[in-house]
Amino acid sequence: MSRLAIDTATEACSAALEHGGRVYHRYEVAPRRHADLMLPMIESLLAEAGCDRREIEWIAFGRGPGAFTGVRIAAGIAHGLSLGVGCGLVPVSNLEALAVAAATERGEAQVLTAIDARMGEVYWAGFGVDGDQLKVIAPEQVCPPSAVRAGDIAVKQALAVGTGWGTHGDALIETLGVSPATIIPDALPDAAVMLRIAMTRVAQGTRPQAPSAAQPVYLRDKVAVPGGGTNPS
After folding, report:
1. What CDD domains does the annotation carry (predicted)?
2. What's the N-to-C CA distance of the chain in angstroms?
3. Exposed/middle/buried for 130, CB within 10 Å: 0-12, 13-18, 19+?
């Protein structure tokens, strides 16, 4: 059996496949090309692994928060594949994936994640991280930098990660009152990390969900913009 993870919620488009104890991986920063890239990525992984899609046991996907269009692409592809092969889904938070990746690389136990949400806001959350295990300390929210809260995180010793820190770093630091120990402003979520998180959860007893239950998380509704369109973030 195999396990697949995909993500398109930010500028990065990524997919990871575990098959026969080995992980196969694709990652490309390609804004606005996710819909064209994801299915070929998946087919490339299956071909490299010598795996048929009917062998997929479950599919993890980046359920958001992130760009509306990007979140919908990953969710739609995951749902379609799930129905096609008859497997379950494991939704994974993009903010959680950022936290686990950064903590693994840097060895920090507390992480403040921020993804640029456009319109002067960030997708925000704070986590305690131990390996692939997470404890939510500051719940996910979308808000202006002036409204973020760190909960019980010791900001001065924390790791800050995500594009929100690149766009709104000064404002976030002003709100928190102190700068985090390390800031990684260009980090993007990766399906390979989501695969690790999902495998850990399933091994601990989490059951993959039916497509009807595995829904994306936007944190805010689409917002109308002048000209009758909508903001895609």
Report:
1. ASKHA_NBD_TsaB
2. 36
3. exposed
Residues in the chain: 233
Structure tokens at 76: 């739609």
Do 143 and 124 form a contact (C-beta atoms < 8 A)? yes
> What confidence tens digit (pLDDT) does each residue in 111-143 have?
999 999 999 999 999 999 988 789 999 999 999
C-beta separation of 162 from 100 below 8 A:
no
Residue 219 Cα distances to 36, 69, 71, 142, 143, angstroms: 26, 14, 11, 6, 10
d(CA 126, CA 132): 15
What is the secondary structure of 87-141 as a DSSP string? -EEEEE-HHHHHHHHHHHHH--SEEEEEEE-STT-EEEEEEEEETTEEEEEEEEE
Cα-based distances in Å from 43 to 4, 29, 38, 81: 11, 18, 9, 12
Distance CA 93, CA 66 (A): 10
Q: Which of 63, 64, 50, 45 shows the shortest CA–CA distance to 4?
A: 45
pLDDT digit string, tens, across residues 12-27: 999 999 999 999 999 9
Q: For residues 195 and 186, what is the distance between their CA atoms, to the nearest angstrom?
A: 21
* 207 CB neighbour count, 10 Å cutoff: 10
Q: Do 147 and 112 touch, CB atoms closer than 8 A? A: no
